[in-house]
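wait is this the right file?? whatever heres the structure
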């Protein structure tokens, strides 16, 4: 990774590739367009190549001028362009959360724990495979995906409800990214009998391994701020 070092308010900062990826995902979800098309649109507005934006997207490098970072923030509708920057040591600026904000974080944490508990107790949601199969479903995996999507909707609803108190806090973005990436990853493409019960010897992660990895990731986010 090659990132230009900028000096801002007497501090050395670099482009925050993680935050950029998160904002890009938000824009993709909002406009419902592929990443490649989105990268092309950003490149045209910034006057750079699509390959350049692609490199930022995948953390290979970052903008070479802080003015580009400011322009990028405007395009992404980010009020404070410094959110696309982080200290040279990689640490985010830690904010002191109020009791109300801590309660908001706990509500997001609690529903994530509920989801992971459901995942673990049903062996990666695959216990539902038998339930739907016995009920006559032609495609149990499709039914499981619909069920889990409804669970994910509940989580995103809680996140949206806590925007009022947490929108200017880094932990809000990290929790959003955790749900959008980590929680999806533990079941996306895995809710089939064959994956969990026939292909595990080929090296696919077990339910317990997926659960532990997601829990560790979630707790590491909380421990940074609380």
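ok assuming it is, sequence goes like this
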């Amino acid at each position: 990774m090659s990132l230009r070092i900028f000096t801002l308010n007497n501090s050395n900062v670099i482009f925050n590739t993680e935050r950029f990826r998160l904002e890009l995902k938000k824009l993709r979800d909002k406009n419902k367009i592929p990443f490649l098309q989105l990268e092309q649109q950003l490149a045209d507005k910034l006057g750079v190549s699509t390959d350049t934006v692609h490199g930022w997207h995948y953390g290979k490098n970052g903008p070479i001028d802080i003015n580009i970072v400011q322009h990028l923030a405007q395009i992404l509708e980010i009020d404070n362009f410094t959110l696309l920057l982080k200290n040279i040591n990689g640490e985010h600026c830690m904010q002191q959360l109020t009791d109300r904000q801590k309660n908001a974080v706990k509500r997001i944490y609690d529903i994530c724990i509920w989801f992971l508990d459901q995942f673990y107790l049903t062996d990666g949601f695959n216990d539902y495979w038998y339930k739907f199969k016995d009920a006559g479903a032609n495609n149990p995996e499709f039914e499981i995906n619909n069920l889990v999507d409804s669970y994910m909707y509940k989580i995103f609803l809680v996140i949206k409800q806590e925007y009022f108190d947490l929108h200017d806090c880094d932990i809000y973005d990290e929790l959003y990214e955790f749900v959008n990436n980590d929680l999806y990853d533990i079941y996306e493409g895995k809710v089939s009998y064959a994956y969990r019960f026939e292909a595990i010897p080929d090296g696919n992660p077990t339910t317990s391994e997926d659960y532990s990895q997601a829990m560790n990731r979630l707790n590491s986010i909380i421990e940074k701020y609380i």
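Residues 90-94 have pLDDT under 50 and may be disordered. so i think its the right one actually
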